[in-house]
Design the sequence.
């Protein structure tokens, strides 16, 4: 029997126990949230990461489709924590912060959400890569045009 | 807060398996070595704080969004650079 949760964004969400991801430490700022489900928003580049315990969710994007040269190198402790054995088990998203105006919206490339799809484990990983900003513009081209005018 | 005085090369043990060692001191910079089990996450404080703040903003702003706005935003989303 499917389980359900109430979301102010998505309404009633039906989900199976088997699709729930466990985040052992929660994520920074939300250490109490240990269980999430993921829902792709149709006709958009966004995926929603929704907490099971409360009506809290995050917008995510796939950083690799937006930033062609993005790399998410997993250190040994992340492989261990997420029990990752094969690269095929790994999914990586980055959290989006929508801003006013929307063209100022950013995504956190320096701390991606990393998932092991086989074990259903997840974490937010702080990459030790100074090239990636915590506030990388989603609409860099639009922003550049503005600067030029 | 527990305050301990340590010399270069000396260490502190925090519970089983977590060791914090002073590697070197140069001016106002202290190099610290940390040994911890793989399941323990270690962050620089300012990086942890920054991630925490971004996450809070990310969670808060979804309250004022709806799916239609999200799809509209997505339609103007640029593809690969």
Sequence:
């Amino acid at each position: 029997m499917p389980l359900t949760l109430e979301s102010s964004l998505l309404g009633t969400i039906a989900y199976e126990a088997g699709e729930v991801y466990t985040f052992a430490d929660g994520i920074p700022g939300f250490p109490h949230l240990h269980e999430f489900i993921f829902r792709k928003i149709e006709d958009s580049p966004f995926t929603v990461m929704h907490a099971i315990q409360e009506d809290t969710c995050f917008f995510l994007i796939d950083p690799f489709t937006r930033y062609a040269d993005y790399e998410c190198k997993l250190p040994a402790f992340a492989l261990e924590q997420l029990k990752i054995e094969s690269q095929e088990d790994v999914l990586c998203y980055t959290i989006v912060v929508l801003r006013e105006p929307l063209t100022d919206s950013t995504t956190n490339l320096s701390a991606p959400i990393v998932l092991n799809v086989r074990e259903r484990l997840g974490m937010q990983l702080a990459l030790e890569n100074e090239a990636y900003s915590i506030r990388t513009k989603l609409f860099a081209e639009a922003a550049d045009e503005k600067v030029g005018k | 807060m527990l305050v301990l005085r340590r010399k270069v090369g000396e260490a502190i043990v925090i519970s089983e398996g977590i060791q914090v060692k002073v590697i070197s001191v140069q001016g106002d910079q202290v190099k610290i070595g940390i040994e911890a089990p793989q399941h323990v996450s270690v962050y620089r404080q300012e990086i942890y704080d920054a991630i925490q703040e971004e996450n809070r903003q990310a969670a808060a702003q979804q309250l004022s969004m709806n799916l239609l706005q999200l799809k509209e935003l997505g339609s103007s989303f640029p593809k690969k650079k």
In short: Residues 8-36 of chain B form one domain. The beta strands of chain B are 11-14, 18-26, 29-35. The first strand of chain B starts at residue 11 and ends at 14.
